[in-house]
Amino acid sequence: MNYKLKRSLKFSISIAVITFVLAAIFSIISSSILSGVVWVVGLCIVFIIVAVGVLFDTLGIAATAAAEPPFHAMASEKVTGAKEAILIVRNADRFASFCNDVIGDISGIVSGTASAVVVLQLVNVLGESDGSTTQITLSVVLTSIVAALTVGGKALGKFFAIHSSTKIILFAAKTIAFLEKQLRINILSGPSEKTRKSR
Questions:
Q1: Which residues are within 8 A (CB) of 107 and not within 5 positions of it... i.e. 6 or more apart?
Q2: pTM here?
Q3: Closest CA to 106 of 24, 194, 5
Q4: Nearest-angstrom CA–CA distance, 191 and 168
Q5: Which of 26-30, 31-35, 126-130, 153-157 ranks highest by mean pLDDT?
């Protein structure tokens, strides 16, 4: 029990640190990009950020809904990404935590910040003063649209994640396998042979 608790605490702390770093990076990048573009492009960037959040939320849920057996059958037939898919399903809690809590929540925060920047750009274009009724109205409308798209998109994503979990996870696994091969990095790491024997 102590081992499991220590492992859980270690993972929680590492996720918190990763979230802090990624949130800072995404905020800086999005703010830098938005400050140099017109409001229409800025609005498109906001919608892209929302879409990223919805996508990763779908991946996280699909990981918890997927089962291992189909991927074992694929692995025996040497289907690309099957081994990575097995690792994703076996570590569904961690994969879902990263996708839903880290990327998903960061996307929500960054999209809110980006929306505020777009509103300020629109106010400047319209020649309105800061804190005007127009700014407040635009802020409420855009925030509501972003919230509706996020919640509606995640609801739709949950449907596909539950009913097409195998296809979604295989697609994610193939993408990871491709990135690992091209970038020569190990994104997913399974337990070593020594660790498996010790168990």
A1: 26, 49, 50, 52, 53, 56
A2: 0.82
A3: 24
A4: 24
A5: 153-157
